[in-house]
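Hi again,

Forgot to attach this to my earlier email, sorry! This is the prediction with magnesium ion bound. I've pasted everything inline since the attachment limit keeps bouncing my files.
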Amino acid sequence: MKTLNIALVGQPNVGKSMLLNSISNSRLRVGNFSGVTVEKAEVSFVFHGTQITITDLPGTYSLSDYTLDERVTKDFLEHESYDLILNVVDATNLERNLFLTTQLLELNKKMIIALNMMDEAKKEGVCIDDEQLGIILGVPCVKVSAVTKRGIGKLINRCIDLANFNQELSKLIYSDVLEEELQNITSFLSEKKYKHELDHRTLALKLLQENKKTYKQMHDTPIWVELLPILREALSHLYLHYDTKNIDDIFEDERAAFAKGAVVETVSYHKQKSKDITQRVDALLIHKIFGIPIFLFFMWGLFQLTFEIGSIPMEWIDAFFVALGVAAKSIFGNGELGSIIADGAIAGVGAVVLFLPNIMILFFGIALLETTGYMSRVAFLLDGFFHKFGLHGKSFIPLVTGFGCSVPAYMSARTLKNDKDRLITLFIIGFMSCGAKLPVYVLFAGAFFGTENAGNVLFIIYIMGALIGLGAAKFLKIFIFKGKDEPFVMEMPKYRLPSFKLIWHTVFTKSLMYLKKAGTFILSASLLIWFASNYPKNYELQNAYAQKIELTSEVTQQAMLANELNAALLEQSFLGKVGKFTQPFFAPLGFDWKMSVALETGLAAKEIVVSTLGVLYALGAEVDEANDSLIGEIKKNIPLASAVAFVLFVMIYLPCFAASIVFAKESGSYKYLLYLFVFTTIVAWLVAFAGYNLAKLF
Amino acid sequence: MTLADLNTGQSAKVVTINAQDALKKRFSSFGLRKGALVNIQAVSMTKSTMEVSVGATKLAMRFEEAKEVAVQMV
Ligand SMILES: Nc1nc2c(ncn2[C@@H]2O[C@H](COP(=O)(O)OP(=O)(O)OP(=O)(O)O)[C@@H](O)[C@H]2O)c(=O)[nH]1
Ligand SMILES: [Mg+2]
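C-alpha cells for the complex follow:
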C-alpha cells in the first residue's frame, strides 16, 4: 500500500488538532488557548488505498524563536522524514498566520495550506480568494472548517494528488532589492557549477541569512575566496537599503511585507465588520474590579455543583456496590473467596467508582474553562498577583490543567520559555489538587459536613491548596530558582461557544480513562491490598478467639470478641505491620495505622487512598454492620482533627507514581524528583500538623 | 511615548521596538512590529497587565514589556 506522511504545522490555536480529529475521528485534545498540544501525536488511517499518517505538532508562532513545545515542532520539521507539510492557518487572522507560512516555504518541502475556520470567517464577513492566494504562494490552498467538516474530503484528495505528482517546489518571492542580490549569488554559484545537496537559490538564501551550518560547510571549499566579496557586497547593499545591520530584522520585514501583500490582494471584507463580541464579553470578564470576583464565583459554583449534583448519583452507586458486596458474600460465602471479592475487589473499586459523578462535574468545569477562551483571561487577571509570587502568568495554564491531572500539567509547562519559571511551576503543580484527590476530599467533606456546607469546604480546600502552592513558589523563587523575570506576552484567543459535542468528547474521554483505571490498575491494587491485609494468617490467634467465643453464650459478648479478632488479625497482617511501623511518623498528625497505610499506598495513585480505606474498613468493619457505607465507617472511626490533617496531607504530598515519572522527565533529572519528594513531604507534614492542632481546639 | 502610556480605548502606531532580541522576535511573530496599529483593550486594576489588539490578534502583556514599544498617537 502507498504511504503518505503528513506533518501538521501551524500557529497555535488555529485548529490543527481539531482538524485532525475531523479528518480521522481521533480524540486529540482540543482547547481554545495557545499551547494545548505540547507533544507530537501520530494518527494513521487508510484513505482510498493510501495509508496516511498525520503527525499533529505543537503550534508555533514562528520558526525562529521557541519554547520547549515549539522546539518539538522545529526538530520534527528539520530532522524527521515526512512527505508534505499541511500548514493550517486561521482564515480570520491570515496576515499573522502567513508569516509562519513564509518560513515554512523555505524548508523546500511540498506544502498545502488549509484555510481553517472558514465558518467563522464567513460570519465575520471575511472573504478569501483561495485560488489567487494559491498562485501568490505557489501552493494549493483549500478552504475548510474543522467544526462543520466542510472541505475536509477535498483537502485530503489534494494532499494525495500533491504527493503523487512531482512539481517544482514553490519559492517565496522577496522584494526586488533582495531578489537582485539573491540572483547575483545564484548566478555566480551556477557559473562555477558548484555542487551541493541544496539548489543554488536556497544556498544563496542561506548565505544571506547567515546560516551557520552553510557557512561552516562552504568555508573550507575553494569557491569561498571568490564568493566572499560577492556576499560582502550583497550584504552591504542590503544594510544600506534597510538601514539596519541586523539580517534577521531584514528578513523579518521581508516576510511581513510579503504576508501583508498577499492579504491585500486576496482578502476582502464583505459586510461591515460586526461588533467585536469578544471585546464586549471581555469588558465584563476581565473588568478591573469585577474580573477576579467573577472568577472566584465561577469556581465556587463549580464546587457547589460538584457536591450537590454529584452526591445524588453517588448515593445510588454507593448503594449498588454495598448490595453487590452483600450479594457476593451470600454467593461465595463468608470465607476467603467471598472476602476477596467483596472486601477486596468490590470495596476497592467501588470506593473509586463512587466518585465518578464528582469527577465528571469537575472535568466539565475544566473543559468549559479550556474551550471557551476564558482560560487565557484568567491568566491575564491573575498575572499581576502571580507575579508577586515569582510566577509567570502563563504558569496559570499548567496549574489549571493540574486540577484535572498532573501528568498533562507537567507537560504543558513546556510552554514556559524560561527554565527557572518552568521548574518553579513544575514544583507547585502538585499543590493544585488533581482529580484523583477529589474522592478523598468528597469522602471526608461528606462525612464531616452536611450537604449544605460540603461544597464550601471543597472550595476552601482547593483555594487553600493553591495558596499554599503560591507560597511555595515564592519560597522557591527566593531561595532556589533565583532569576530575572521572563517577559509575559500571551495571545488572548477569541471567545468561542464550544459545541456540546466538544465538551462531551472531553469529559467522556477523561471519564472513560478514570473508569478504565478503576477496572484495571485500581482493581489489581485493591486485590494486592486485600492480600497484604489478610496474610500472613495467624491460626493461633484465630483458635484462641474461637475458643473464647465458644465459651461465652452471650450474643453481644460474642460479637465483641469477633470484632476484636478482626482488628487483631488486621494489625498483624503485612499491611498492618507496615502501618504500625510507619505510624510513629504520622502519630503527631493523629493518624491511625490504617490512614498511614492509605497515604503510603496512595503514592501509587491517589485513587488508591480511598480504595485502601475502603478495603481496610470493609475488612475491619464490625461484623454486625457489615453493610455500612464507607462514609459511615469514616465518620465512626476517625476524629475530626485527624480528618482535617489527613485532607491537608493528601492535598500537598507527592503526586502519583505516573506523575512523578513525568515530573522527573520534564524537569530533566531524577534529582529534582527527590527534591520534590522531600519538599512536599515536609510541607505536607507541617501543614497537616498545624491543621491537626488547630482543629483540636474546636 | 510608549504603549504603557496609552489609556484603554486609545489607538496608536508602533514607531520602534526597543526590546531585546528574543522579545522583539516574539512581538514580531504576533504582528507587533514597526508600523503596526495597536489599540488598548483593557488594563488590569493594579496597572500591571494590559490587553492590546494588533490586527486580528489580541495580546496580553505586562507594563514592563509595553514600555519597550514606542508608539505615536494617530
Ligand atoms: N469556529 C471554528 N472553530 C474552530 C475550528 N477549528 C478549531 N476551532 C476551535 O479553535 C480552537 C483551537 O483548536 P485546537 O485544535 O486545539 O487548535 P491547535 O491548532 O491544535 O492548537 P495548539 O495545539 O495549541 O497548537 C478550539 O476552541 C476549537 O474548537 C473551525 O473550523 N471553526
Ligand atoms: Mg493542538
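Residues 21-29 of chain B form the longest helix (9 residues). Residues 14 and 36 of chain B are 5 Å apart (CA to CA).

That should be everything now.

G.
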